[in-house]
Amino acid sequence: MGSSMMPNTEFDLYIKSNVTVLKSRAIDLLLSKLRDKNTNCAEFTFYGDRLMRILAEESLAHIPAVRGGEVITPCGSLTGLVDYRDKIICVVSIQRSGDILQEAVRTILPGVGIGKILIQRDESSPEKNPVYYYKNFPKNISDCYVILADPMLATGGSVKVAISVLIEAGVSESNIMFINLICCPEGLRSLKDAYPNVKVVTCCIDKCLNEHKYIVPGLGDYGDRYYGTG
């Protein structure tokens, strides 16, 4: 985290209680590959898919259904993490980049519920305001624990709109976990102020936003680099 993360008791407590920043050497290496501007589209897709798989695995291990419990081994027993699956899980993507992360979760958890929300940034507006277009959810969405997927958390505008759409559909705020690769303090503060009960799982908290509302150092536009449309 950079210098823009100035000491703030309330914000620090929020980060400690609501935000999980994943730590591993593999994550650091793959993030560095994605950040490199010289990484071409094919390489970006390859490294991105590997990192998304790690994030998906970690995210599924952080849902409330995973709790401490007894594990019986062939030679004895121990206390470990047990997936009780007492919640119906639905992974909802903020299209289009969120679809990539959603697919990583679906690969690990075949048959998981799938939802879509289309929100796009208005690049012509100074604040890059999000524009909501449509949603498509399972009929039982209000009964689900929702994993909301989008690779980047910049201003927080898109994810806040997505959360509002989920809540309007009957999902409890405390039953939403937002997963992303990279976020920044500005986006986290915005999310905290609007929806403090939403859990966040991320691979990194970067320094800040620049004047164009892009994360610094970031990696650019994830979707454009992944699909080769930038």
From TrEMBL:
Q: Which Pfam family, just one, is annotated for this protein?
A: UPRTase
Matches recorded under CDD domains: PRTases_typeI
Looking up InterPro entries in the UniProt record yields: PRTase-like, PRTase_dom
User: Which sequence ranges are marked TM in the entry?
Assistant: none
Domain Phosphoribosyltransferase: start-end pairs: 22-229
Q: Which UniProt keywords apply?
A: Glycosyltransferase, Transferase
Extract one GO molecular function annotation from the record. Answer: glycosyltransferase activity
List the SUPFAM superfamilies.
PRTase-like (SSF53271)
Q: Does the keyword Transferase apply?
A: yes
Q: Which residues form a coiled coil?
A: none
The keyword Transferase belongs to this UniProt entry's keyword annotation: yes
- Protein name, entry field: Uracil phosphoribosyltransferase
In its UniProt entry, the species of origin is given as Hydra vulgaris
Q: What is the lineage of its organism?
A: Eukaryota, Metazoa, Cnidaria, Hydrozoa, Hydroidolina
